[in-house]
Each structure stands twice: as C-alpha cells, then as structure tokens.
Design goal:
Radius of gyration of chain A: 20 Å
Strand content of chain A: 5-15%
Number of helices of chain A: 13
CATH architecture of the largest domain in chain A: 3-Layer(aba) Sandwich
Shape of chain A: globular
Number of domains of chain A: 2
Order of helices and strands of chain A: EHEHEHEHEHEEHEHEHHHHHH
Strand order of the largest sheet of chain A: 3-2-1-4-5-6
Number of strands of chain A: 9
Largest interface: A-B, 67 and 67 residues
Oligomer: homotetramer
CATH topology of the largest domain in chain A: Rossmann fold
CATH superfamily of the largest domain in chain A: NAD(P)-binding Rossmann-like Domain
CATH class of the largest domain in chain A: Alpha Beta
C-alpha cells in the first residue's frame, strides 16, 4: 500500500519504520532532516514536502505535537486538504483537543475526504515494538479501512465513536491514569511512613480492591519492580510533561463540557508543580517524589 | 477447635457461621440478642457474656465497629486480657486505628498473650461466601497459627507485617480504592459529557492504562455492568459511610505520620460531602452521583 | 463626548445609563430590541447596527459575554476595526481570555487603532450605582484617556499593565475570591458542626488572620449578615455560573502558562459540581450549601 | 495578683514577661532551666516544680506544645487538679484538640475548679509586644475574670463560647488562613506567569474582592512588602510545621464532626508536602515556593 507519513518524532519515527517493515511503500516527511534520513535508511522514500508525501497516497498518516500543528498541516490554502485525493484515507495519530479533531474532520468531510482520529497509547516502547493501542474516532467504515494499517503498528485497535471520540477516550483514560498513579504513590508512601515494606504493601493492594495498572505493571516506588522507570531513577517511559499536556487537554474538555473533575484537576496541578520543580523529563511515575524522600 | 466469637453484625454473623460449617465448636456473644439467636440456630453455642465466650477458647475472634469497642473489650479490669488463657490465640478482625491495634497488642504481649490484627475486605457477600480477604498484622508464627481458621472464612490471607500492619495495609488499600472509584467516576462522566457511550469508554479504559478494580468488577456508572450496585440504584455493597470511616482512619494515619495525601484527602472530603447530602447508606460507587445527573 | 455602546445586558445596560446621566451623547446597540428600547427611554440614541453605533464615536465601549463575541464584533471583514475612526478609543469591558484580549488589541494596533481591555468587578449593583471597579490593560496613555469615562461608571480604576493585563488581573482576583469564599464557607461550617455560633465565629475570624472580603462584606452563612444574598436564599448577586465561567478562564490561563493552581482548580470543580446540581443561578456564596445542610 | 505560669517557650516566655512588667507576682516553671533563668532575670520567681508554681496562685496559666502535655500536667494522681486551690482560675493558652480542652475542663469542673481555654494568635512578635489575640472558651463569668490578665498579654480578647470553643475558633481561623495564604500565593503566581507585576496585582486584589489578611499584612511574594518574612527569605514568623500542626487539629475536628473540608484538606496536604521537602522551619507564607521558582 502507498502510505504518506508526516511527523517522524519519538513516536512517529518508529511507527513509520514498522510500516516499512510490514512491506508498505512509505513516503515520509518531517521538518527535521535527520529524522527523515533515519527513515530513508530504513527503507522509506524521501519527500521534500508534506504535499509530496501526501500526493497519491492510499493512506496518509500524521503524528504531530499539538492541535495547532494539525490545523496548520491540513487547513487553509496551503493545507493538505487541497492536495490529497478523495480516495486517500487520512489518519491523524496526534493527541489533540477533541474539538479540533472534530472540526478538522468536519472540514475534511465537507471536501469529500475521509479522516479519522487515532491517538495512541503505549509510549515509545510500544511504538518501537509495534504494540501500541489505537483509540479511534470515525465512522465504522473508515475505522475498518484503517484497521489493517494500524495493526502493522499496534496490538489493540478500539473504536470509541465518531470523529473526535478517539481523542475524548484517550484523554479520559490518561486523566484516570494520572489519578491512579498519584493515588498509588500516596498510598504506598502512607504505608511506608507507617512501617510497611513497599513490596509487601504493593502486593497486597494489587491482589485487593486497590488493584490498578500502576500496581500491576508500573509501580512508582523504587525497587518494587524491576525494569520499570521507578527502578531506573525514573528515566525513560512517559514523561511528566507529556502527562501534563494530556491533563491539560482533559481540563479543556472539562471546561467546555462544564464537567466537575476534582481528582483530575488536582492531578493536573500536582503534575504541573512537579514539572515546575525540574521533573518535566522524568517518567510520570516520578510523582512518587512529591510524596516520598527519594 | 474451640472458638470464641464476639461481635455478630453484618460481617461477624456470617463469618461465625462459616466457622460452624467448617466443624468448629463456636461460642458466640453479641449485645444484640437476635444476632446471637441466629447463630445458635446455625449450630453455635450461646454465651451469656464476652468472658463466657472467651474462656477456654483455642482461638478468640472479635469483629467490632471501632477502636473504642476493641479497647473496651480487651483492656481494663473487666477486659478479656484478664480472662483468656495464655494458650488462646486472639484475632481481632475489626477495622481500627493502627495505633490502637499496636497498643492493644502490646498490652496483650505484656501479659503473655498472643494477638494479631486481621481486618477484612470483601464486604458482606465475601463474609457470607467465605471469600473474604484478610490483611494480617502479627508475628509470622502467630499468623501461621491463625491461617487455617481464617481460611474457613476467607480466600486470601496476607501478612502485612507486625502488629498493626494489617490495619495500615487495609487503610492504604481502601484509601487507594476511594481514589480509584472517584477518578473512574469522573473519567466516565467526562467521556459521557463529551458524547461517549459509558460502556464503550469503560471497555477501552479497562483494556488500557486506566485499568483498575472499579472498571474490572464494580463499574460506578449505571447500566455498564449487571449485578453491581450501580445497576441497582446503588443498593447493597460497601456503604458510603463505611468508606468515609476508613478514609477517616487513613487521614488519622496521615496526620500522625505527617504524610501528604492530597488525593486521599480530597476523596475523604468528597465522600463526607456525599454522605452529608443523604447518601450515607448507598454503595460507595454512588460517588458517581456527585459528577453525573443520575 | 460621543460614545458608542454595544452590549446592553445586565451589566452593560446600567453602565450605559450612567454614561447618559453623566451628560454624554450615547449611541447604543444590542441584538435584543427591548434592551435597546430601555436605554433609548433613558436618553440614549438608537443605533440600527454595531457599525452605526461605532461610526464617529470618541469612545467605543463593548460589553459582551465571551471571547468569541468580541472577536466576531471587531475582527474580520465585517468587523468594527474596518469601521471605526483612528481617533476613536476602544474600550472592551467584557471578561474574556487574556490571550484573546491581547490578540484583538494587537490587530487593532496594526490598523492604527487604540484599544484597551477593562473588565469590571462589582456586579449588577455596582453597575447600577456607578461603583464598579475597572481593571484595565493598555498603554498608560490610553488608560489615562479612558479614565474620565470609566469614572462615570465606576469608583476604582486600576491599570494592571499592557494589553490583556486587565483580563489577567481580573481572572487572578476572581480565582482568589472563589478560593476565599469556599474556604470561608468550610471554616464556618466546621465551627458550626463543632458547636459554634456562626455569627460569633465569623466575627472572631474577621478580626483575626482569617480576615477576608467574604467575611467582611459577603458572609456566605445565612443570617450572619443582613442584605447579602446568603440571607435572602442566595438570590441576586454574582451567579454560580458566572463564577464558574471566570474560573474556567483562570484554568485556561493556568494551562497555557503551565501554572500549578491546586486551590483554584479545586474551587472550579466545586463550583462546576454545585452548578450541575441546579445551583447555577444562585449567588456564588451558595457554595456554603455544598458543606452545610441549608 | 499572684500568677503561676507553666511553659516558657517561644510564646510562653515573652507572655510571662509581660505579666511581670504589668506588676504581677509571677511564679514560673519550665523543664528547660535556661527558659526559667531568663524569666527570673526579668523579675519572676523561680518554681522548682509545676506544683510549686501552681500552689496559692490567683491565676494559673499554661502554655504547652500539644494535647498530651496538657493532659499530663493537669490529670492523673500527680496532676495539678489535685494541687490547685478552688479559688484559682486556670487558663490554658496551649493550642490543642477541642475535644481534649473540653474533657480536661470537664474534669476540672468535677473537682470544683474553673478552667478556660485561651489559645492565641499573633506569633512570637505578638507575644513579645503584648499584642496577641486570645480566642477563649469558657463561661462568661470565667472569661470576664480572665480578661484583665489576658489584656496584659494581648490586645484582643474574644469569647467564642463554652469550654473548647476557643480551640474550635482558633482551628477554624487557622484553617481559613492556610487556605487564603495558599490561594493568594497561587493567584499571584498565575499573574506573574502571565506577565503581571506582583506588586501591581497584589495592590489591585487587595482593593478588590480578593482582599484578605495575607494581601493586607503578609504578602507571600518576595519584594512586595517590606518587613514580612517573604522579603527576608521566609525567616521568622509562623512556621510551616506549626501551621501543619494546626491544620492537623482542624482535620481531626473535621473527621470527628464528619465535616467536608476540601480546601482545608488540600491546604494540609500542601503544607505537609512543603514541610517534607525541608521547609518546616520557614515561615508559612513560603508556601509560595511550591508554586513559584524562588
């Protein structure tokens, strides 16, 4: 299949590589030359512009940092919506505001184009290993068309609803993740401060009603689990600043829908505080450091 | 085995019954006559006082509402510590302040007695079905002695550490549970307010990094799961006031250990607010009602 | 002076009246005919369009609900920036996002126009009595020009800084106000729940380090002060939904500047929760009802 | 008047000195010899024991760190309640749990003694200058008797209600103070992060509805006010750990009365976090450092 891929950062780069490996013909573009070069070495075709990558593609994929980049890529006179063929399926994998995802997809539809939002979770390791989760918003038909391609990059493909729903579901999930990570860190510290062994306590809670993803796979307390960021000085993984960005998107959705999210809002403030103290690049499980002397 | 059992409420009653079923000779006492009668009909032996139940027992079990009841039962001139034989193993299953559990066990040790704290989780259903989880604090030897008896009432027996550690671990777990439940309720409502189906969103988060016990077994949003309190007008289950009590114990432990628990403290205030609006007897998953129009 | 006034709602209407009273020649416009009629009866001149009100004005004032209304009024081909004379001083009194205020003022400057942001506090009573506080952003020169006109509508004129600074300062003030009001309500309720008379406690705190605007002028507990909303079933005053809107603007500013505002974020969630339970039209001091049985 | 004074720490020392200055005959006791010596040099009489200080006093004053010290001083066989004359007025100025204050006063009443609780605010400066505020719980008659003596040490004497009410009112006030200090710090930082001058913003809020004690007398942002701790590296003043202690007392009262105090609980967690990062001895306005790079 002919695939155009725009945005070759920490996530987009390995995702595009997996498409090459799967045998697709992938034309790539990024503003950073070295990112393009790495992909070309892996077998992708160099594009000299976003337009060049998009023209003639069966599937066009974008993986960009934020809402304004997506708007800038697709909308306006220079936007790709004036370039791509009506037969091209557009998949935006960026994590952006649901409102933007909906409005961009709506402009696409107005021009006879098909676009879906497909934000991912699973981090850079998931991108490299092809084990990402895609949370997708768009028509059933469009999501079905996208699925074989997404499966070359990920393991789980969930359709959350129509356009924008992928973004909403991802935002809700990540807000919940921040809450349970903070809550887990607090609970472990409360136990440690009262004389418990963090390993024993984590094990008990994991087998009881406190069970959650953090206890299961990503314990925030150093030394409880091997091979997680907390046992490696909180290096690697999913950064504090990225979590803060997703919590910001969650708060914007809460503001627009007038939703009350006290736990999520508190988590956002804790992550913003943690970042402002210099922890922005650490893994997000380092929120433990707010509560413990580590 | 000769077992004395004191405190036959919603939890203690079915727990004692399971001991009778397991073939033990169980002497029971409660201040409420009807509770005693029900047990006697099930095959237990009537005691006319706590002392009567305690004398000659191989194992003495208590299941009482709060710290002061435990102190009052065991300490002082009339207390059971002046009654029970040094060979009796004392198991307090009440959920009380760790500090109290430690000090009472310490008095016991001073008199040559062996006492462990073994608070439970699993609710009235777990008590009835013999599937409770016991989180135990005491010496390894004492916990090993207790295990066969506890296994007649529960499925999982965890030793958290020395005296009081059972209480600490239970408190940490339940604080985390309250945070997870509130966070899950908020996340689902944020999705619903942005057009998502609560079933679809719950399913996606359960398979992603938002995964937790509430999504898995106890979804707080009505209609997502059958046979949970949220689909039955939040009747049954683990009451808001009981969760508020456990959160109070968590806060006391946090105060004494000078721990910072922002998420847990917020959960406590939300549960106290929810209770003050008349929801004290509803299941604790009804915290969803603070965020949703239900 | 010839003044154009656009937006004659609960705030704008009485503000425009005070300009008429002060002897100015005021041309008014609103999409709601009855609002215009009331002003014409008070001595203002009818305009048939926003353009009509703006042409030839020495000062043009707008008082609109939200950012998008301000953008829509001034920007674009039909926008007033293409209509007003370069000698006209433009004063936007709407409470909107600082970012919008800055970008709109920047467009104005690009066209050689002078525009300041001058959001108000003091509520409908302040608007009627001409005792509003204006918190102004713009050059010193522009603010000096505006001051005599603003003094016809208000008592205090503060310059917070350059364009957008008026919005920032108002947002910060109102976020703090929400925190003070919630904190005061909690503190009074804690005292009442522990047997204190809310009047005695309020008096003590007002004379101690808990002193704040709410205790001084706007006690949230019914019966402590006469002539405040809390003693009148929380009718009148500054509505819960308006406070929620301002807290939303504060949260947006916090997100954009990556600021940690845990107290403000919690206040926002409490106000959103309070509104979702049907209290949106009550005075914002009714947050007391979240904590007390009233 | 013959006054016994027990507890000569940072607060008690200067308070006792002011009684000496006022012409009273003051017998003093403290476990720390140097504290006693300083008072004796100032004109007080040495007591070799608490009993010695108490015997024959018209008024007996205690100023101790926490509930357990007060219980230990007055209760039990060695307690002063078995020593003091029935004509002695007992004034406990310690800040302790209201419950303890009530129960100790009740024991006193049972022995025919009169005791009031009179916690103070105003810090070490207020103690030295005789400008403390006393918040008093006890019968009107007892408070009237105490007033002339208290006026030798303070400026404002408030009767909050019967026994324990002084403690409740002080706790409520200090919880509110922590909330408004945190909220003020957040609001200033939000303004600074959006380009405002902290002096200008503080001035505007102080003249608007954000007005509160912190903005008025104790601005937490360095450089806004002279002669406050924030402009002196947060040295001196009222320490973070003391505020954390008072917030702990507030939380205990909230737990016992099942009150919902989300803002107060959040403030407690922020102060506990701040203390755990090494700020325990700084002035409590240093909470600004959690939000700002200072």
């Amino acid at each position: 299949m002919d695939i155009g891929f725009i945005g070759l950062g920490h996530m987009g780069g390995p995702m595009a590589k997996n498409l090459v490996k799967a045998g697709h013909s992938v034309k790539v573009f990024d503003l950073v030359d070295s990112a393009v070069t790495a992909l070309v070495e892996a077998g992708a075709t160099l594009s000299t512009s976003a337009q060049d990558a998009a023209i003639g593609a069966d599937v066009l994929i974008s993986m960009l940092p934020a809402s304004q980049h997506v708007e800038s890529l697709y909308l306006g006179e220079q936007g790709l919506f004036n370039t791509v063929d009506s037969s091209t399926l557009i998949i935006d994998c960026s994590t952006i505001a649901p409102e933007t995802a909906r409005s961009v997809a709506s402009v696409a539809a107005g021009k006879g184009l098909t676009m879906i939002d497909a934000p991912v979770s699973g981090g850079t390791a998931g991108a490299a290993n092809g084990t990402l989760t895609f949370i997708v918003g768009g028509s059933e038909e469009a999501v079905n068309r996208a699925t074989p391609v997404l499966e070359n990059m990920g393991k789980n493909i969930f359709r959350a609803g129509d356009s924008g729903a992928g973004q909403v579901a991802k935002i809700c999930n990540n807000m919940l993740l921040a809450v349970l990570m903070s809550g887990t860190a607090e609970a472990i510290q409360l136990g440690v401060a009262n004389g418990l062994d963090p390993r024993v306590l984590s094990d008990i809670m994991q087998k009881s009603s406190g069970r959650n993803w953090a206890l299961e796979l990503y314990n925030p307390y150093p030394g409880v689990m091997e091979s997680v960021p907390s046992s490696n000085d909180y290096q690697g993984g999913f950064g504090v600043d990225l979590m803060a960005k997703d919590l910001g998107l969650a708060m914007e959705s809460a503001l627009q829908s007038r939703s009350s999210t006290p736990m999520g809002a508190l988590a956002r403030s804790l992550y913003a505080m943690h970042s402002s103290k210099g922890a922005g690049k650490l893994d997000f499980s380092s929120i433990q450091k707010l509560f413990s002397e580590l």
